[in-house]
């Protein structure tokens, strides 16, 4: 009997020992499945459940998850440790999520439930020991595919206009904005200007939707918000677009991610004609030379405007002043580009004033085309020899000197309070005084001048000698400006390089600046930057012999080209001549070979390379 009891006890001991060995082996086997780093991570299937232990000898477990499509990954962790670290990484080792999970003392377990929208690719889950805490855990995963129309990998593949996916009209496309893919771009083409319908359904709290043209300009935008009642955000809008290539962009707003679908439907049969027009437009009819003019008016269309051009054409059809602006609203006040049209700089003659606009439908129209005249300034000088001062006066305030006898004329410069002026006449309409100013004349308001006496004298600042005759020659010691008058307060006519030879015809008595021959006229330079090299009485006339202003040749332009103030491209443009225009040549510049021609009511220069003599 004793032997039987002993045998039974041994059998029971072996059984218990065997069961304990089996449990230990199973536990070791589970821990052996989990790698200790990303590089040794154990692959697991999405949708499965796994358990393991963190011990003093096994301080971390890593699992590898492969997503074959973009979608929403859910990871649940139940921990039986007081503290433990939890991580999610992408295939490049970039951390997507981390948490330091603490257990609940009542239930003696910690619960973690994490959901992320991710692109297809490989991801890693890490469970890592925190301090001395050890214990068991359970890990579970689930996944819902986004069913994207264009599958994307880590960090996306259509994140710019350059990489946009090509789509067709009248077809629905599915997409996802993910944690690691914040933008999706699609490209579509309209063969004709038409109305389209954009329908976008979003399952994100907020998201941006844009439409761009081929140049990357935004032609439509919407910051779509989720509707709590319907459980989605909705755009359902008709948009008029011109023919061309476009891009639709779905862009993440802050951290919101999720799925969306959209469809662009052609509504060609419902396309609306452009209503491009102009309202409240003003325009000049007759101006006096030097008079400015302020443009006002509004251009509008049922389509977005794309460009507005304002221009002035001379009697030959050449644009002598123009301004253009790229715009995007449905209505635009073209007074915003008024400053680009210099009415005050136009010479006397006949002109046309045009306003041209284009909208997103591709419609372009000349909305305004009006003729106007610029008249030469009539002489309002009181009887006496032209240019002879009949009165002298002093300014009672700082005031502008203008091109004509009112504030509507452009300013030539300013006079300081107390400046002496030589009055050569009075405008019969406004009472403004015509005064000597620099090397010419200007107008000042009579309200700010006190008459100090009469004078028949000449306050000529030029040293004795025949007007325009060179009395000295010199060389510039530095690069310097040539100005309209004898100080830096006058506008620049151009620049002279260091070492340039100048022909000096006089000296300003107040500032000492030299008056020099410059181009076809005169200008002033600072005497501080000129070394006198000798005296001369010669004449540096660049025009071929003949009566001044008499055409000695005629020719035709072989190309469209600029007419300039002087004989090189460094001079300002006066306007343009069309190819085949006839020109009357009155001289040739000896240095550059450029032709001096009759232009409008004056003269200009054109390159001889683009003129064929008749």
Automatic annotation (TrEMBL):
Residues 540-550 have a biased composition (Low complexity). InterPro entries: Cell_Wall_Dynamics_Protein, SH3-like_bac-type. Residues 386-453, 469-534, 548-614 form the SH3b domain. Keywords: Signal. Residues 540-559 are annotated as: Disordered. It comes from the Bacteria. Residues 1-24 form the signal peptide. It holds the Pfam family SH3_3. This is SH3 domain-containing protein. It comes from Intestinibacter bartlettii.
């Amino acid at each position: 009997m004793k032997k039987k009891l002993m045998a039974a006890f041994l059998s029971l001991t072996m059984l218990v020992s065997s069961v304990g060995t089996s449990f230990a082996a199973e536990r070791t086997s589970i821990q052996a499945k989990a790698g200790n780093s990303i590089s040794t991570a154990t692959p697991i299937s999405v949708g499965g459940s796994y358990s393991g232990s963190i011990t003093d000898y096994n301080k971390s477990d890593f699992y590898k998850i492969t997503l074959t499509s973009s979608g929403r990954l859910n990871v649940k962790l139940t921990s039986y440790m007081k503290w433990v670290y939890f991580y999610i990484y992408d295939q490049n080792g970039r951390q997507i999520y981390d948490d330091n999970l603490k257990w609940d003392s009542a239930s003696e377990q910690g619960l973690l439930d994490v959901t992320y929208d991710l692109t297809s690719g490989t991801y890693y889950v890490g469970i890592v020991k925190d301090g001395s805490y050890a214990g068991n855990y359970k890990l579970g995963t689930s996944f819902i595919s986004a069913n994207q129309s264009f599958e994307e990998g880590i960090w996306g593949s259509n994140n710019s206009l350059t990489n946009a996916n090509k789509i067709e009209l009248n077809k629905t496309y599915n997409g996802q904005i993910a944690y690691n893919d914040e933008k999706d771009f699609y490209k579509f083409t309209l063969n004709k200007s038409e109305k389209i319908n954009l329908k976008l359904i979003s399952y994100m709290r907020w998201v941006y939707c844009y439409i761009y043209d081929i140049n990357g300009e935004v032609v439509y935008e919407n910051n779509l918000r989720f509707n709590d009642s319907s459980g989605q955000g909705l755009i359902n809008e008709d948009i008029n677009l011109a023919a061309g290539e476009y891009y639709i962009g779905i862009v993440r707003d802050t951290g919101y991610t999720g799925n969306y679908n959209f469809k662009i439907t052609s509504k060609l049969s419902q396309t609306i004609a452009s209503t491009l027009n102009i309202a409240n437009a003003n325009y000049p009819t007759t101006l006096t030379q030097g008079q400015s003019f302020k443009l006002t008016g509004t251009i509008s269309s049922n389509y977005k405007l794309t460009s507005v051009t304002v221009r002035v054409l001379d009697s030959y059809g050449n644009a002598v002043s123009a301004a253009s602006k790229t715009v995007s609203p449905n209505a635009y006040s073209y007074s915003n580009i008024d400053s680009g049209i210099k009415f005050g700089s136009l010479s006397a003659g006949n002109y046309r004033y045009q306003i041209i606009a284009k909208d997103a439908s591709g419609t372009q129209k000349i909305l305004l085309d009006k003729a106007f005249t610029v008249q030469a300034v009539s002489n309002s000088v009181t009887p006496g020899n032209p240019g002879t001062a009949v009165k002298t006066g002093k300014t009672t305030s700082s005031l502008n000197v203008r091109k004509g006898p009112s504030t509507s004329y452009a300013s030539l410069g300013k006079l300081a309070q107390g400046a002496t002026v030589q009055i050569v006449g009075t405008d019969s309409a406004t009472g403004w005084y015509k005064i000597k100013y620099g090397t010419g004349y200007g107008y000042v308001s009579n309200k700010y001048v006190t008459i100090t006496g009469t004078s028949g004298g000449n306050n000529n600042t030029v040293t004795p000698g025949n007007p325009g005759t060179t009395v000295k020659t010199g060389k510039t010691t530095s690069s310097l400006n040539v100005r309209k008058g004898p100080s830096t307060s006058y506008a620049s006519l151009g620049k002279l390089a260091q070492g340039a030879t100048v022909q000096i015809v006089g000296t300003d008595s107040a500032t000492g600046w030299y008056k020099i021959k410059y181009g076809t006229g005169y200008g002033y330079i600072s005497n501080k930057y000129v070394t006198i090299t000798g005296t001369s009485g010669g004449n540096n006339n660049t025009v071929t012999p003949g009566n001044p202003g008499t055409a000695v040749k005629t020719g035709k332009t072989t190309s469209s080209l600029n007419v300039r103030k002087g004989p090189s491209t460094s001079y300002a443009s006066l306007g343009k001549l069309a190819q085949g225009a006839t020109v009357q040549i009155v001289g040739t510049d000896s240095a550059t070979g450029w032709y001096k021609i009759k232009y409008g009511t004056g003269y200009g220069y054109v390159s001889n390379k683009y003129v064929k003599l008749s």
